[in-house]
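**Sequence with structure:**
===
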Amino acid sequence: MGAKKRSDRWLWGLGLLGLLMYFVFSWQDLFAAQEWKALSREEVVEKAKANWQEAGIELEGYRINAVMESEPSLDGYLGKEDLRSEFENQAPATAPSVYWHVTFYAGEMSSGDTRYETYHDLVSGQVFRHIRPDTDDGKEIGETEALQLAQSALSKLGIDRTRLSLLTDEELMLEEVGDWELNSFHFVWEDHQYAVGESRLYYSVNVTDGNVSAVTSYYEVPEAFEQWQSKQTLFASILTGFSMLGSFLMLVIAFVFLFLLQQKRPHWTTLWLSLLVMVLYAASNINQWPIIEAQGLAEGGVLGVLIVGAFAIVAVVFVSILVGAGNYPLTMTGAMLVREVKPSLWLSRKDPEWGERLRLAAKRGYLLAFAWMGFQGLFYFIGERYFGVWYENDLSMSPANMWVPALFPLMAWFAGISEEIVYRLFGVTFLKRYLKYSFVATLLPAMIWALGHSLYPIYPIYTRFIELTIFGVIIGYCYLHYGLETVIFAHVIFDTVLMCIPLFLSGEAVQVASGIGFLILPLLVGYGFSLIKPKREQLDFA
């Protein structure tokens, strides 16, 4: 009992120190992020409607998609060359790198690809880019009149034309597009006051049949950077493939051992855990519907939405079943190996200490999670300042792009349960059973786990592999010392805290309430389940 108290005193110290370190090392990144200052989806949709109403266009009955997007190539280039501060001073408000993209589209197949799109500044909601379908009520005009319409459209969007230089035929940037009979023109201006590294800012206006159909802005970055980034992405995909192969081999080994050990009894805890993993995976992916819908729109209007949406739903259902089914043999085999290696790594509900163990696991989970956060903050503080580590905004994982932003932290429960079962309960226990050496037993599963995170937009691409390999070894030792329940809670809490931060920063009551709820949920789960009294005849959970 004395050793347990000493251990927990160390945990309290490490947890509080880790929490302090995380905010000291990471506060600038947290508050520099633009997403938390942004208008809500509902607010920006209202501004988009008002924009089209002013143009005399009523979009009643149209479906609406609103997603937060960024200029990924520009963001990557600025990060790599450490030019973000210079960009903030140079770039005009009419060409932000992160913005809301609102699309109104007709929901009937017969309407074709009819879309009205606006791009908005995150904070003010000002429209700086818009695209509308071509109309049949236009007229044939000449290049001079088309140019005047294009210039007027730029001015209406608040774009300062004194910053712009119209590019000429000789520069191959002014061109008629489409069929001459359609009377279409495409004008491009360069912002001659913008000079951030070798990136360039351009404005483009399309005029068709006497109507402005599109006003857009775009950045160009050096081709050498784009080629480098493509190679990094390919390398990350290969590393992710190795992780998938390693995880698949672990699943095969689990199946073989399950067959050899001939475990035929029903193990209800294992079954419920597998079903929970399946449901959490499906819910987390379905919550990303706005991004799926946007991808479908990019593929071709309502037809694209139907095709991409149907494919995504089928894929989510299939993979969810696969993930849940795969979780079962890994959990079963890991639990059986635990009995040989160290029974205290995962206690049965029949064990008289099970309730106390679960309460301690929840409490220790918070302390370990805070300590891990401190490690991560220190790792990236050192990496960014001394080893050239940098990152891109990954808005695909932003709560702003979730169907129900308040449910974003559900993903933490999927990751915490499934990954700790695969890489710690099975991976570490299996290797510990046959190799005896704790370092090797924790290292190899950590490497497979780390490779699976290679596609995160953090560069150089091997950064996450190094971080999570070290992190995985630390978690492995925590597992061997405190048991499975504790590292599951710690992993869930670690991810939950990071996912709740943008909910709190949003300032929206529903999201803030959700963040508070998710932060205390592990404590409620740990203490709540510890109060359940097992039936005497209940079979041992595996």
Notes: Residues 170-181, 537-542 have pLDDT under 50 and may be disordered. The first strand starts at residue 63 and ends at 70. The chain is about 60% helix and 10% strand. Strands lie at 63-70, 98-105, 115-121, 127-131, 164-166, 184-191, 200-208, 211-220, 390-391, 458-459.
